[in-house]
Structures are given as C-alpha cells and as structure tokens.
Design a protein that fits this description.
Length: about 250
Amino acid sequence: MKKTLKIAILAAALISISTTSVLFAKPKIDANGEQVGFWKELFLGKQKYVEYDDIELQTNNVFQQQKERQSTMIYNPVSKKAGVSTYFQTMFFNFVFSESERELIIRAVDSYIKDFENKRLIHNNNKSTKMYGSGKCLAEYGTVKIMMNHESNTTFKAGYRFEKKSPYFVISVKGAKDEAKNQGTYTVKDFPTVTMYFTRAQAKDFAEKLSQDQLDVLQAEYDAKIAGWQNKIIQEKDEYSAPTPEKDVYEE
C-alpha cells in the first residue's frame, strides 16, 4: 500500500512539473516574431531571416554564363546582419553582412556610380574588381532553400568589371571551407567563389535596400513582437500562480 502511494505521489509530482514547464516554457520565435510550432520547425525549419524585399542581380550558371537571378533581401533581427539570398550554379546562398560591412558596400556603390558618370572606370578587371574595398561576411548555402545546412565565414571584395564592354558593379565572395556541424551524410567541403553582378540601376537599388533606415523599421517591429510574447508569458504565469478564491461555506 505504501509503495503504491509513493508511486502515485511521484507520478503526480512529475505531471505537475511537466504542466508547469509547458505553461512557462519560452516559446520558439522566428525572425518574423512569430511562434514556431513543432511540425513547422520539423518540416520547414526555424526561419532565421525576415525576407523584406526583392532584388535583381546576376550570377554565373554552370556554363559560366551570366544569368539574371530574382533574389531576396534578408535580415536577421537577432544577429542584426543583413544581405541577400540568391542562387549560384546549383546551390542557394545567403550572404549576410554586419552594419560596418553594409556601410562599406553602400559607399562602394556610391563610388562606382560617380566613377561611371565621370567616365573614370578602368579596363583592368584584376584591379577593378577590388577597387572599392573588402570585408567579411557569412555565407550560408544548400541545394534546397529552406535547408541551408552549410555555412562559412569568409571575405568579399567590392568593385566592378567589364563584361562585353559593359561595366558591372560586382561583389565577389571568396570560396571557403564548410564550417557547419551535424550535417548528416551530405557534406560540402567548400564552395567556390561567387560573384554577383549588378547593373548601375540594380546596384543603386541594392544599396538603398541595404540602408540602416529600412532595417531599423524591421528591428522595431521584431522587438515589439518579442515584448508582446514576454508580457503574455508573465500574464499566464501570474494567472497560474494566483490562489484559488475560497468558497463561502454556509451552515444548514
């Protein structure tokens, strides 16, 4: 009898702990400030980036020919890095930059446009492709867009190059070794150097969409949603912890 009673008490304690953990567990929130359910995370993963605008650029295909890519501007409100999601040869890529690196790119675009308009561009691709500076960036990549399980910390160069007498603004991301862990059976030793080509209009559009003013709006929206989730958890905890009011007992 005593043994049965102990088992019952232990089971009740475990149920109480599990219930409390569920009620007060911090919800998993994605980059859009939305709660991520179990099945959504299992099949689609936890969304790391806010996809806030479209952008046009060109990358090479497997035959080393330039091809227009409908790409997407992305922002991570946790790391505060932003950049572009695009396609190169047979893989999808996210290239994201810190605020200082984004400022470097914006200044590079401005210098390119001024040099273009003032006819100061030189026909030496070895020099011109790194004309406006270099920096660091994070590259994430994979064969499926929602499963980019590979990543590399690498560097990039900003400049321009002539292709068929047309001067394109370029960002060349240096190929690097895959640093991701727990990749399963499919691994990528490294990725090749990726060059993104922009016409003058595309480069200007890219720089404007990379500006901090746009990202500040996204950050404010995310922070407001996170504050809402935190207040909801506190409210639920207070309601759960509040004592049950005693009922009036009347004598017959």
